[in-house]
Structures are given as C-alpha cells and as structure tokens.
Amino acid sequence: LTWPGRGNPNFKYNLDFTRVTTDPNLFCAPFVDVNGDGVYNVYDGDYPLIQGDNMVWMVFNDDVAHELSSALPLNMELQVSVYAFDCAESDAIDQSLFASFEFTNRSTNDYLDTYMGFFTDFDLGCLSDDYVGTLPEENTNFAYNASALDTNCPNGEQGFGPNVPVQSISFLNKEMNHSLPNFTFNTPPGTGGPTTAQEYYNCISGKWRDGTPLTSGGLGYNPGSTDFVNHAFPGNPSAPQGWSMCTTVVPLTDMRTITSHGPFEFEAGDTFQISVAFTFHPNIEHPCPDIFSAVKPTVAQMQTWQSDGALDAQLDLGQVVSLISGQSITLDAGLPGGTNYSWSTGANTPSITVTQPGAYAVTATSATGCQWEDNVLVQLSTGTNTISTPAAWTIHPNPASGSALITFNNGVETGDVMVLFRNSQGSVVRRLEAVSGPQYRLDTASLSSGMYWVEIWYGSQFGGAKKLVVGR
Predict the structure, then answer these.
(1) pLDDT of 247
(2) CB contact at 8 A, 78 and 53
(3) DSSP H helical segments within 247-378, as ranges?
(4) What's the Cα-to-Cα distance from 338 to each of 114, 270, 369, rounded to whole Å?
C-alpha cells in the first residue's frame, strides 16, 4: 500500500511516522502499472516490481558534501534493490544475496574517466585473520581464513570454528577491472585507506592511495617496479606457486578490499547499472583452500546464468487478464532456458491457449533449477480493454470492515452459486458454496486488511469479479 511508486496517494507517513513531504510525483520505486496511468495506486491493481522472492528497495543521493573525502558532490542518484531467492534446488542461488545498483547522473556535467567501486570489509568470522584474493576471469573478489580454525577472536566476535567458509563478491554484468587490497596496518604508508578526494580516486582506479601502481608480488606495493597488474592475489591459495596471500608474508590484520569497474564516460542524464552477487560457500577446507575447485565453478556458473538471462528470469502472468467471448488468449510462462512446466490444466508446455474464463496456475523450472509459481485470473471482456463486471450482482459497502452484502438483481433460488475470495496475488483465500437468495452477507472480519477479488460462479458459468477493499 505504501510502496513509493510515482504519485502514490496512500504513501503519507515515513518509517518514523513523520509525514511524507516529498512530492509524490518524485517517488521512483519500480512498479507494474496495470491501468497505464503512470501513477502507482494499489487500488487500481498496481503492484511493486520486485526482483527475486524477497526484496528491499532504497534510494540515495550525494547532493551534500562528502564527509569522508571532503569531495564535491557529483549529484548522483543511486537506486538499490537487494533481493534473494527461495530456491532450495540450487545451493548457489539459495546462499546468495543479490543487489542491483542503478546510478543516474542528475548533474549537468559529463564525467570522463569515471569509476564505480565497492569498498568491502569482509569480516569473515574473526575480523583480524581474513585473507583475500581475486578471480579476474569471473569478475570475483573473495575472502577466506588464514588458518584451519576460526576461533578465539580477539575482539570478541563469533568465529566459525572448524567449519570455515569462503565469501565471494561477483560483478555479474560488468567487468571487475581492478581489485586492490587495503591493509589497516598501513605499512608501507601508501597501502592504507584513502582520506582525500585524490586518494579515493587513486584507489578506485586501481592504484595505491599515494598513486603508486599495483604491481605483482609481495603486498603489491613495489615502487619502482614496472610489473603492473590490475588485480591483487589472483593465484589459487592452495598452489605453492602463484601470487596469493598464502604465498606472501602478510601480518594478520583486518583486511579490506576496493574493487571497481572503469574507466567509462558518464554523461549528464545517463544511467549506469551493475548487478552484484554476494555468495556464501560453506565448509571449505582450510588453510589455503582450493578456491579454483571449491569456489570458481560456482561463480562461473552464476556468470553463465546471468549471460543467458536465467538469473534474472521472472514469471509474471499478470494478475487479471481479459478474454473476449468466443476468442482465445495465450498465457506464456516461458523462462530463459526453462526446463519444465506444469499447468493447472495438465499441460506441460511453456505457454497455453485458453478459451474459457477462470483461474490458471503454473509451476515452471528455470535453468538455475529454481522453481517458480504463478497464477492469473482470466475474466470475460466486452471487447474493450475494461474487465467486465456483470450488472447481475453488486457488493457493498466497499471498502468493508466487518461485513459486505452481495445483492443479486434477479435473485438466486437454486443455491448453485459459488463465491471465491482471491487476494491481490490471485490465490483463493475463501470459498463459499451453495449461496442462494436475493442477498448474501459476507463476513469480512476474519480477513486481513487489503484488496480482494470477489468472484462469482453460476455453476460452471463465470459471473464476473469485483474488487473489494477490506479495512479496519
């Protein structure tokens, strides 16, 4: 009800219960505009456009002085969708948190040599014994433990004990052009965290904070070396040869990383979007784990699913669709790389053709192994774009609190009437059989507040559906 979609008239209070003073036309949360009027209103059937099965959406901007770097504002808007899938069929998907970052240049400036970067403090259990590395070909940064046990954390945090995991962060649709370690011990001085605007830019563009290029070997800080590289510690930790933190003498410290994409041109009004997966890999043998065998295949598969479209697959049949009497419509549940479909009609094809009104449901399996379920209500139409609402019956009051009254204009004596309550997702939450008489009182006190479809069936003949809002 309070989703901050454009123009939402029902979004009146913030989370802290203060009044919303923002112009509703500036709300920018994504939504499905069922009636195409450009305004989000749940009572028009509009609903949030989410990714995954559970999602949190937020919006930021930097139209203030930058506190840490003292840099000037860039006038960037950042919309973030953080989401997860309920997918027990795929460990990789089920143990990942996904995020979509959408930057919009709201300034009048065209920015050249732009970088988008992430500062990450993994804190994998005990925060002072993290090691880090990079899988450049998979656009992935990862953290593992320095020893086989993650216990006796000096700062009192909870460790993983002998069941040590690996945590990875993968850029799914953009290249991870640079990965730079950030040592808190700050020795040599150039390896510490940035403090000025120029130092931040140096780090986000793959250099140390003092401008020294990242070079291969040791800590990666080797002034005078010309063996320049873009990614730190790309070797397999389990390999005696190669450059990793397991083959480098590194004091134990609270390791951080800076990973980035760029450079690119970012003109005024442009939008830049990047998708990121945060994946948990449990119980990896330590110390110096075989990342190439235990982690690399998983993140590589994730990249393939992203390229194929399977990772972003969405099953949305719509909530209510119109069917002109005597004609047919196609319900399409096709997913990229979909492997299996099961319709309530018994069909096992990606799409079905229907000629009768009613409720239709489908279960589909995508290439990731995740199963999706959706349903749709097909209603008879008059031949226009409006859903038919037969005049043979009415329902009032609307909104209703404790009860609502259905009135059949011509009376119903046979008792062969069925009333279905569907929630806003189309699922049947109540079924009333053998309804008869000129009027029938519906008890709504036990229903949760919200919008419902009240659907009438005269035997096997569909009698239409009307929206009913239940409030308190």
Answers:
(1) 95
(2) no
(3) 291-294, 296-308
(4) 38, 33, 9
Phi, psi of 383 (to 5 degrees): 105, -5
Residues 6+ apart with CB under 8 A from 136: 176, 179, 230, 231, 234
Residue 213 DSSP label: B
**Structure confidence by residue, pLDDT tens digits, 284-339:** 999 999 999 999 999 999 999 998 888 888 888 877 788 887 888 999 988 887 78
Q: Fill in the DSSP letter of residue 22.
A: S
Residue 203 · residue 209 · CB < 8 Å: yes
Could you give the CA distance from residue 179 to residue 469 in angstroms, rounded to a whole number? 53
For residue 26, report the phi and psi dihedrals to the nearest 5 degrees: -95, -10
Q: What is the mean pLDDT of residues 369-396?
A: 68
Closest by CA position to 457, among listed 398, 399, 406: 406
Identify whether 165 is preceded by a cis peptide bond (ω within 30 of 0).
no
pTM of the model: 0.78
For residues 348 and 341, give the distance between their C-alpha atoms in angstroms, rounded to a whole number. Answer: 5
Whole-angstrom Cα distance, residue 169 to residue 97? 10
In sequence order, what E strands does 36-189 have? 47-48, 54-61, 76-84, 96-105, 111-120, 130-135, 140-145, 166-171, 178-182
If you average pLDDT over residues 2-28, what whole number do you get?
91
Average pLDDT of span 15-32: 90
Burial degree of 308 (CB within 10 A; 0-12, 13-18, 19+): middle
- Based on the number of CB atoms within 10 Å of its own CB, is 342 exposed (0-12), middle (13-18) or buried (19 or more)? middle
pLDDT band at 392 (very low <50, low <70, confident <90, very high): low
Q: Where are the alpha helices (DSSP H) in 268-408?
A: 291-294, 296-308
> Which residue type, as a one-letter code, is found at position 189?
P
Closest CA relative to residue 262, chosen from 171, 196, 148, 144: 171
Q: Which of 174, 269, 180 minimizes the C-alpha distance to 221?
A: 180
The two structure tokens encoding residue 173: 């649709």
Quick check: 439 and 460 in contact, CB under 8 A?
Answer: no
Give, as one character, the DSSP assignment of residue 41. Answer: -
- The chain-wide mean pLDDT, for the chain, equals 88
Pairing of strands 340-343, 461-470: unpaired
Structure token pair of residue 179? 């990965």
Residue written as token pair 């998708």: 275
Alpha helices, DSSP H, located in 95-169: none
